[in-house]
Specification:
The complex is a heterodimer. By secondary structure, chain A is an alpha/beta fold. Chain A has three domains: about 240 residues, Rossmann fold (3-Layer(aba) Sandwich), CATH 3.40.50; about 200 residues, P-loop containing nucleotide triphosphate hydrolases (Rossmann fold, 3-Layer(aba) Sandwich), CATH 3.40.50; about 50 residues, no CATH class. Chain A contains 17 helices and 23 strands. In chain A, a hairpin with a 2-residue loop joins strand 9 and strand 10. In chain A, helix 14 runs parallel beside helix 15. Chain A is globular, with a radius of gyration of 25 Å. The N and C termini of chain A lie far apart (about 60 Å). By secondary structure, chain B is an all-alpha fold. Chain B folds into two domains: about 70 residues, no CATH class; about 220 residues, no CATH class. In chain B, about 70% of the residues lie in helices and about 0% in strands. Chain B has a two-stranded antiparallel ribbon. In chain B, helix 12 packs across helix 13. The chains are: A alpha/beta, B mainly alpha. Chains A and B meet through helix 10, helix 11 and strand 18 of A and helix 9 and helix 10 of B.
Chain lengths: ~525, ~350
């Protein structure tokens, strides 16, 4: 039985067609995967489904009834529930309060807690989900929070669940648990749309895959007939090559963190709790960890934005005294920021102005009296734009109009042209399409060949295993010893990401070497 | 109805949006004029004549535009860096205090040295009035809107104390006013039989200089970067605190200039009514100019024209000159809307 039917939906923004005549069907009791790169039109489609946008053409039927366009609660009332990538829970309320929030009857002063709890327990039992209704959301793990989000949708009577990139914040073990829950739900007749760009997860959980590319539905395939390469090709539109990693003999240390502690705010645990990492020449070290375990503090520290409360940072043997971005740039630290829109570029300034931002204080770019030498600056960025293949109509356009991939190439160009000895690559491919990912990875590998040491921070274990020589796991501000990529499996890293850092000790040969 | 960003904004749209907005503002204020029962045409004609209709009127308008230009620049520079300096009024009085201190007999020098000395002193005093707000903002994240605004009253009360007490001119017959600026320090007139003085030229030069700094120098680059995205600027190695300090000194200095032009150019001595809110009007001037330094010249003259013209309109036809404040306010609102419409188009579906 068909439960959701999207018929020929088209939506354009100015000259950009975000959704071009998209149709899809969802049957009762199936998991449909929606695969597509960032910018393929997945979000627009969801926004139309939930009434945030009005489609130019097309209509949507849920359980045989047409949704009225632009009504934000039509889909929810019809039984569609959404689990967002970023959770929408209130930390200071209990699990139960979060779930009933917004469903309380307006006519009653008092919340009927007992009845709500009974309903919740019944639902949890039905789908085999473990949930503790009285715990505060602040005290539960990320995996549990996701279960609460799913529960929230089910509590409102959802029969169709849409999960947007649900595995981004989970450890591999938590992903397995999620999949067990999802299977239990479809067995009871619920239907699920699973949005992701992680191919192995789609292969593991879905029955059918729909592929979106540049706003068009480019293909539909039964999962049993699909494999990794065919899906990747459908998503990107061409064959995808993996980067060649050559193993190189690690050289002298380029950066050494010695027992670094970064204090949290008053009354909070330290963000970094005695971190020691050494990164050598010709070496990529991957930092694995669930989001929010100290990666940001470590990124800020290595960018020169944060001063450690105690401990030392040595760059090429010299202990750092001046913790400032300027000093770090001068000492040959290249930084790729975690959030390129917030930190990487000044969106309202032009492409070339952003290209020169780290080199502006050096000679050829300005002349007597600190007047900017416009010709030299334009020449400087023209070269980099060419060299790094930054695609922009003109370098006079504001940087915010660049696509994510081209913005990242701009940041790479600006950083790498200084030939840094150490590169902090903080989530360098987050949100990029396959073509741009390959370009970024190729640049990092080339920098490694040229002699740089790289710290690659990523939540995507596939990326770390593909690129890194060693992996370090971070959990609650503590790091594991470095593990050689050849010695460990994704499962081992997963166990450590969940908090058991000592699990890595038996592999600890890389650190001893 | 929703707004969609325009893909490209044409040069003509940017240029004509404010002019169209002022047209809309005039139409809107016509309603009030009709209410008084006077003829709209007659009112606007007398306003235009009063502002620009004769050599004398023009000179009066430009004289009035001088402090507005300088306080407008002060606001434009600061706002570009997202440093919300609402204290130009107080900084203006600081400049006037410095000019009075230096120019009423402390030293007597040749005018070619005396006049620059007054301006330098005024700028330093105006800039220093912002040191405390900048310190509080940088160290303790205290909002500068509050500190700069409240300092206005502190400074004004201090001026009041000086004029009632130690600085009161013994020849003033008891009026709260300071001694006159000595002849060597008075700004020379630049148009015969008018009050238009050297300050106007200083204002124009300041606008051009500010434009050059913002557009062509490393400082200007850093100021713009900090204004648009402070965290990206920090990441790229620009010190936000240092940039804000620099901006504050420039902004306060320009407002201090305005105090000097009024004391040494127009009035000749310091009183409590030296400025009828030039510091606050400077914010409107900067907004009308979309924070562009050269645009400030035009918008200061426009605003001065309205104020001067409204005075003469109120004499010619029976409309109170408060209408000028309404016209300025409506113009600023209309310009803000027009700036938004030049970036976005309205879709009704």
């Amino acid at each position: 039985m068909m439960v959701l039917h999207i018929k020929g939906v088209t939506k354009s923004f100015g000259s950009l067609v975000a959704n071009d005549n998209i149709s899809l069907t969802l049957n009762e009791g199936e998991v449909l995967a929606l695969l597509g790169e960032n910018g393929a039109g997945k979000t627009t489609l969801l926004n139309i489904l939930f009434g945030h946008y009005v489609a130019d053409e097309g209509e949507i039927d849920v359980f045989g009834t047409q949704l009225s366009p632009g009504a934000t609660d039509a889909a929810i009332d019809a039984g569609v529930g959404m689990v967002h990538q970023h959770f929408t829970l209130a930390d200071n309320l209990s699990v139960l309060e979060n779930i009933v929030l917004g469903t309380e009857p307006l006519t009653s002063w008092k919340l009927d807690t007992a009845q709500a709890k009974a309903k919740l327990t019944a639902l949890a039992n039905e789908f085999g989900m473990h949930i503790e209704p009285d715990k505060l959301v602040a005290d539960i793990s990320v995996g549990e929070r996701q279960r609460v989000e799913i529960m929230k949708a089910l509590y409102r009577g959802a029969r169709i669940l849409i999960l947007d990139e649900p595995t981004a914040v989970l450890t591999p073990q938590e992903v397995d648990n999620l999949f067990i829950t999802l299977r239990a739900m479809v067995a009871k007749g619920l239907s699920i749309i699973f949005i992701s760009h992680k191919l192995h997860e789609i292969l593991a959980i879905s029955d059918r895959v729909n592929v979106l590319r540049r706003g068009c539905m480019v293909g539909e395939i039964a999962t049993k007939d699909a494999d990794r390469d065919s899906l990747a090709e459908m998503m990107v539109g061409r064959e995808v090559s993996r980067p060649e990693v050559e193993h190189m003999e690690a050289g002298a240390p380029v950066i050494e963190l010695g027992n670094v502690i970064v204090a949290g705010g008053r009354g909070h645990k330290p963000l970094l709790n005695g971190v020691s990492i050494t990164i050598h020449k010709h070496e990529i070290v991957g930092l694995a960890g669930v989001a929010g375990n100290g990666q940001s503090a470590l990124g800020d520290l290595l960018s020169g934005l944060r001063t450690p409360s105690s401990g030392t940072v040595c760059i090429a043997g010299d202990t750092v005294v001046d913790y400032s971005p300027r000093a770090f740039i001068t000492k040959g630290i290249g930084r790729i920021p975690e959030d390129r829109h917030a930190r990487g570029v000044v969106g309202d300034m032009t492409v070339w102005e952003n290209m020169i931002s780290e080199n502006l204080r050096e000679k050829p770019l300005w002349r007597f009296g600190r007047l900017i030498d416009f010709d030299a600056c334009r020449e400087f960025s023209r070269n980099l734009i060419e060299q790094f293949d930054v695609r922009c109509k003109t370098m006079e356009m504001p940087a915010k109009q660049l696509s994510g991939g081209n913005m990242q190439k701009l940041i790479l160009a600006r950083t790498l042209q200084n030939e840094p000895r150490f590169i902090l690559a903080n989530q360098p491919v987050r949100g990029l399409d396959e073509g741009a990912i390959a370009a970024v990875h190729e640049r990092l590998l080339a920098a490694k060949r040229a002699g740089a040491g790289v710290l690659l921070v990523s939540e995507d274990l596939d990326e770390l295993f593909a690129l890194a020589d060693k992996i370090v796991v971070i959990y609650h501000g503590n790091v594991s010893p470095p593990l050689s990529v050849g010695d460990v499996t994704v499962q081992d890293i997963g166990i450590m990401m969940a908090g058991d850092l000592s699990h890595g000790e038996k592999f600890d040969r890389a650190g001893a070497a | 109805m929703r707004l969609e960003p325009r893909e490209s904004v044409s040069f003509w749209l940017v240029l004509f949006a404010p002019i169209g907005a002022i047209g809309v503002a005039l139409v809107l204020t016509s309603g009030l004029i009709l209410w008084t029962g006077e003829s709209i045409i007659e009112a606007y004609v007398s306003l235009l004549k009063g502002a620009f209709g004769s050599r004398f009127a023009l000179a009066e308008t430009l004289t009035r535009a001088t402090p507005l230009m300088l306080t407008g620049l002060a606001a434009a520079v600061a706002f570009r860096a997202r440093f919300w300096n609402i204290g130009a009024e107080g900084q203006l009085y600081c400049g006037a205090l410095a000019a009075t201190y230096l120019g009423t007999g402390l030293v007597t020098l040749h005018p070619a040295i005396m006049v620059p000395l007054l301006f330098i002193g005024g700028a330093l005093a105006g800039g220093m009035a912002l040191l405390l707000p900048v310190y509080l903002k940088s160290k303790l994240s205290v909002d500068e809107v509050v500190t700069t605004l409240l300092l206005n009253f502190v400074i004004l009360l201090f001026v009041n104390y000086l004029l009632e007490g130690p600085w009161r001119d013994p020849m003033s017959m008891g009026w709260p006013q300071a001694a006159s600026i000595i002849d060597e320090g008075v700004l020379p007139r630049i148009m015969e039989k008018s009050r238009l003085h050297l300050g106007f030229i200083i204002g124009i030069i300041s606008a051009v200089l500010v434009w050059v700094v913002m557009r062509f120098t490393v400082w200007g680059y850093e100021i713009r970067a900090v204004g648009h995205n402070p965290s990206a600027a920090t990441f790229a190695g620009i010190s936000v605190n240092l940039t804000v300090l620099r901006v504050a000194l420039i902004s306060g200095g320009l407002a201090g200039f305005a105090g000097v032009t009024e004391v040494a150019g127009l009035k000749g001595y310091l009183t409590l009514d030296l400025s009828p809110g030039f510091g606050y009007a400077g914010i409107a001037v900067a907004m009308l100019a979309n924070l562009h330094p050269l645009g400030v010249i035009a918008s200061a003259i426009f605003l001065a024209g309205i104020y001067v013209g409204a005075d003469s309109m109120s004499r010619a036809v029976n409309i109170p000159n408060y209408i000028a404040d309404v016209m300025v306010a409506v113009s600023v609102l209309a310009v803000l809307v027009s700036l938004m419409l030049s970036q976005y188009r309205v879709r009704f579906r």
